[in-house]
Amino acid sequence: MNYIDFLIHDSNIFDGVDSRQYASALNLIYEKTNQMDIQYICMLNSDSIPFNLDFDITNHVVLELNDNSIEGTLLGFEY
Predict the structure, then answer these.
(1) For the segment 13-65, what is each residue's pLDDT rounded down to a tens digit?
(2) Contact partners, residue 22, CB within 8 Å, separation at least 6
(3) What is the CA 70 to chain-centroid distance, rounded?
(4) DSSP letters along 19-37, please?
(5) Could you say which DSSP state residue 75 is in?
(6) Can you say whether the dihedral through the CA atoms of 12, 79, 58, 8 is positive or negative?
(7) Contact by Cβ (8 Å): 55, 27
(8) Could you tell me which of 12, 16, 11 has the C-alpha nearest to residue 43?
(9) What's this model's pTM, rounded to 2 decimal places?
(10) How far apart are CA 75 and CA 65, in angstroms?
(11) Quick one: DSSP state of residue 15?
(12) Is pLDDT larger for residue 66 or for residue 39?
């Protein structure tokens, strides 16, 4: 059987959501993706990550982008 083995979305899904609910959602996603052995990809702004997570999110960061230099941007150039 073939199935999609990843979930991806932008941080907009959490726009306006209380930080406790945001943390609960990320905790549930972490638990379920581990159970189902699927990958979870989410673009998060570092200033919006809740502090009360049940796991250390820094251990799961694959790519961190920033606007400090051209090398830190997604496509390698400024818009």
Answers:
(1) 888 888 899 899 999 999 999 999 999 988 888 888 888 899 998 898 888 88
(2) 14, 48, 50
(3) 22
(4) HHHHHHHHHHHHHHHHHHT
(5) S
(6) positive
(7) yes
(8) 11
(9) 0.76
(10) 10
(11) T
(12) 39
Residue the block writes with tokens 């189902």: 36
Antiparallel, parallel or unpaired: β 6-10 and 39-43: parallel
Task: Please tell me the predicted confidence (pLDDT) of residue 30.
Answer: 92
Distance separating alpha carbons of residues 24 and 37, to the nearest angstrom? 20
| Neighbouring C-alpha atoms within 13 Å toward the C-beta of 44 | 18
Q: Please calculate the CA angle 32-38-40 and round it to the nearest 5 degrees.
A: 80
68, 71, 73, 79 alpha-carbon torsion, rounded to 10°: 90
